[in-house]
Write a structure and sequence with these properties.
- This protein has 64 residues and is an all-alpha fold.
- The chain has one domain.
- The protein is built from two helices and no strands.
- It has helices spanning 2-10, 15-55.
- The longest helix is centred in the middle third of the chain and has 41 residues, at 15-55.
- The protein starts with a helix and ends in a 9-residue tail after the last helix.
- It comes from Rubellimicrobium roseum.
Length: 64
Amino acid sequence: MKFIVERFARDESGAVTVDWVVLTAAIALIGAGIVAIMSDETTQLGADTGAALAKIEMPTLDPL
């Protein structure tokens, strides 16, 4: 039994997978945080742009 526990403690075959999972989760959380921060500003920018475009008067052309 002691041999099995020692062999299990020395086995590092899944360590790289754990590193990649942690790294991927961190990148995903950072991306989600950036989206949350930027979404309010871009929504307001879109509303301001729409309001500015709505104020522009375009001349109508007479039909031929």
